[in-house]
Write a structure and sequence with these properties.
heterodimer, A: mainly alpha, ABC transporter involved in vitamin B12 uptake, BtuC, two-stranded antiparallel sheet, 2% strand, B: alpha/beta, 17 helices
């Protein structure tokens, strides 16, 4: 029993680190730009597809893809912010949500048209094949790598935003962009770069996911709802909130899959409902 | 903040409405179809009674399938193309009246499917609905069709109750059912020494039916069921369930799921090293799944199929024509749609009418003999009993050309592949 339980908890942690990675990007974008980035799932899918295309068409392997795919997709995000999203800056956040949601539908539609629903297989990189027997479960080496990398990226992002001068600018921009600009900081550029970084994080998660899940056009639409729930529970825009909640919900979901599988689809949303009832701003959110 | 959250919920709800069923109409014999019901046509009909037997002067078939969701590769647009090929190959006309194929997306939702079916029957003079992949949509549409005396020609769904206690007089269950899959793969695996089983089951009608049927065959062949877990549909991460399967110590992990779920569970079973000590039995694996998994991951797996494109000259010939249009080889569901419609048109021709009762009688009376089935027979319960094939997925080294995926191990004769008529169906004579 204990053995099985520890296995399930470890798997919960692995899934949780994916949630943390994805919700981190969302939280950063919402915190600074006040944009509810509904295209996050599609951008995650783009990252996975970019890795697959790189391997399939040009023979570029996993390790390069881990750097190049987020760069390419992040650049796409940057251009999208400059050309489209910026025009909605002064409007209600709902408009940004609709625009990004529309972008997600278009991207998913295009890829579905080109690659079909079943998608493609991406192999596990040779160096990370195989796994270790921990006694209570068999841990694939790749999954251990996922946890390690996600934690590193999450911690670094948190550190930069909370503890450095650049982070201080970002946080000031969240509070009062006009004042920050008056001090001579190029706020519009900062906004573009932040959106680009958030999108690149999504694409990075996509590359990380490619060897585990089938690379399909709709791979993002399933995960995006859960990730939004994570961000709402953690407190919209809270960096620490999104990381901690991501990991926590991964664990809760893992346990549910073991104790009562039929509820594993809804447990995240039940938690969300309870948290919103008790703390409308989320666990780590500040009441505005 | 609260407003943003509320807006999120509102937008999520509106997406359902935004992607509501789109109906695509394609006309096979366009000019002929333009001749609507006019006084002239009525006069002609009065003079020639044979022609008057086609209601509304058109034989209209609606292909209701999953155009964009989890099953859109194994059925979906390919099913629509197969239906159009059938209409064209029959000459675009039956008894001098045009054949029209229309299609719609049911999104795997029972309520959407029955809604579209009602609209088609009431407003668009649809005579028959084909495919209906995903059992829950088929079970929702069948009673509607029976009530309106229209025919359902199922190719995609697999639940056995379709020809059991849920049977209707106007239904044909054409391509396969879960029992045929279970009997073929389950028996073969047990006979080769896979005695203990654990199931990972998709938590809805089809998955449960597949698990129940396989359990029956496994137990009857001397195997043992050690346990199972029901995974919500759809699931992307199977690691929790695979871990439970691993813990059970069963020799065989039966995958009672389909489409993307099967693909992800096979892929992750490899990753978690399950395939070293335990074996997978894919209980419903389609050609499209093997194609997207790749032979390196899928090799060696046993599966049962109603149709394989490379089986003989006739199947190759038709499949290559299909390939020219779809750029993919047909799955058994898509080939089934073509074959069932050819049979349906032939039955209309033989009956001299599109009256549902008479056409159903003819469809049951006439054997099916084409590239899809030899001496296939449709029973009183609506189940089409025909030979099935046990196949094994080739390894990358064994595969000589594109789409060379299966080795046919044995032909399972119809009597062994399908169960005897279920007395739970009121149409079966006791």
């Amino acid at each position: 029993m204990i053995q099985v339980l520890s296995g399930q908890l470890l798997i919960g942690l692995i899934n949780g680190s994916f949630y943390a990675l994805l919700s981190l990007g969302l939280a950063i974008i919402f915190g600074l730009l006040n944009v509810v980035n509904f295209a996050h799932g599609a951008q995650y899918m783009l990252g996975a597809f970019a890795a697959w295309m790189a391997l399939h068409y040009w023979g570029v392997g996993y390790w390069w893809a881990l750097i190049l795919a987020p760069l390419a997709v992040g650049l796409f995000g940057l251009v999208f912010e400059r050309l489209c999203l910026r025009r909605l800056q002064r409007l209600d956040p709902l408009y940004g949500l609709l625009l990004t949601f529309g972008l997600a539908l278009v991207l998913e539609g295009l890829f579905q048209n080109a690659y079909g629903i079943s998608g493609n297989s991406y192999p596990v990189p040779a160096a990370l094949e195989g796994g270790t027997n921990l006694g209570f479960m068999y841990l694939p080496r790749y999954r251990a790598w996922v946890v390690l990398v996600s934690m590193t990226v999450c911690f670094t992002s948190w550190f930069v935003i909370e503890k450095t001068r650049l982070g201080a600018y970002l946080r000031a921009g969240t509070e009062n962009p006009a004042l920050l600009q008056a001090f001579g900081v190029n706020v519009p550029l900062m906004f573009s770069l932040t959106y680009g970084y958030g999108v690149a994080l999504a694409a990075f998660a996509g590359v990380m996911a490619a060897p585990i899940y089938q690379v399909t056009p709709l791979m993002g639409s399933g995960v995006i709802m859960v990730v939004f729930a994570v961000v709402v529970i953690g407190g919209m825009g809270s960096i620490v909130g999104s990381i901690v909640t991501g990991l926590g919900l991964g664990l809760v979901e893992g346990l549910t899959k073991f104790l009562y599988p039929p509820a594993s689809d809804v447990v995240v949303f039940v938690v969300m409902a309870i948290v919103l009832l008790l703390r409308p701003a989320g666990l780590f959110g500040r009441q505005r | 903040m609260a407003r943003t959250n509320r807006n999120l919920a509102a937008t999520a709800a509106s997406t359902v409405a935004a992607t509501a069923a789109r109906t695509v109409v394609s006309t096979v014999a366009l000019t002929a179809a333009l001749i609507s019901v006019s006084t002239v046509a009525l006069a002609v009909c009065a003079a020639a009674p044979a022609a008057a037997q086609i209601s509304d002067n058109v034989v209209k078939v609606g292909v209701l399938t999953d155009m964009t969701g989890a099953y859109s590769d194994l059925a979906g647009p390919g099913s629509v193309i197969a239906a159009q090929m059938a209409a064209e190959d029959f000459g675009g006309k039956v008894l001098g009246k045009p054949i029209v194929i229309i299609s719609a997306d049911h999104q795997n939702k029972a309520d959407v499917a029955s809604g579209v079916a009602r609209k088609w029957f009431d407003e668009q003079q649809v005579d028959a609905i084909a495919d209906l992949v995903s059992s829950s949509t088929a079970l929702a549409v069948m009673p509607v069709a029976a009530e309106k005396k229209r025919i359902t020609l199922l190719s995609g769904p697999g639940s056995t109750p379709i020809a059991g206690d849920k049977c209707t007089p106007y239904n044909v269950h054409y391509t396969y059912n879960t029992y045929a899959m279970a009997a073929g793969t389950g028996r073969a695996v047990v006979n080769q020494g896979g005695k203990t089983w654990f199931f990972i089951t998709a938590d809805y009608v089809f998955g449960k039916s597949l698990e129940a049927d396989t359990s029956k065959v496994v137990l009857a062949s001397g195997g043992k069921i050690l346990g199972g877990v029901k995974a919500p549909f759809p699931t992307t991460d199977f690691s929790s369930y695979l871990l439970q399967a691993q813990g059970s110590g069963a020799q065989i992990i039966g995958l009672a799921n389909a489409g993307a779920d099967t693909i992800n569970s096979i892929k992750q079973a490899n990753e978690f090293g399950l395939t070293k000590k335990q074996n997978l039995a894919g209980l419903l694996v389609f050609l499209s799944d093997v194609h997207s998994l790749g032979l390196a991951t899928a090799k060696g797996m046993y599966l049962t199929t109603a149709f394989y494109w490379d089986r003989d000259d006739a199947s190759r010939k038709w499949s290559k024509r299909f390939f020219e249009r779809q750029h993919k080889m047909p799955t058994m569901v898509q080939a089934g749609v073509y074959s069932e419609l050819m049979h349906y048109f032939a039955a209309i021709k033989a009956a001299g009418t599109d009256d549902a009762d008479k056409v159903m009688a003819k469809m049951r009376e006439m054997p099916v003999n084409d590239f899809f089935a030899k001496n296939g027979r449709i029973g009183a319960d609506g189940l089409h009993r025909h030979d099935m094939y046990l196949a094994q997925v080739k390894s990358p080294e064994q595969s000589k050309y594109p789409w060379d995926y299966y080795k046919i191990i044995r032909t399972i004769p119809a009597a062994e592949a399908f169960e005897a008529p279920d007395p739970a169906c009121p149409l079966v004579k006791k």
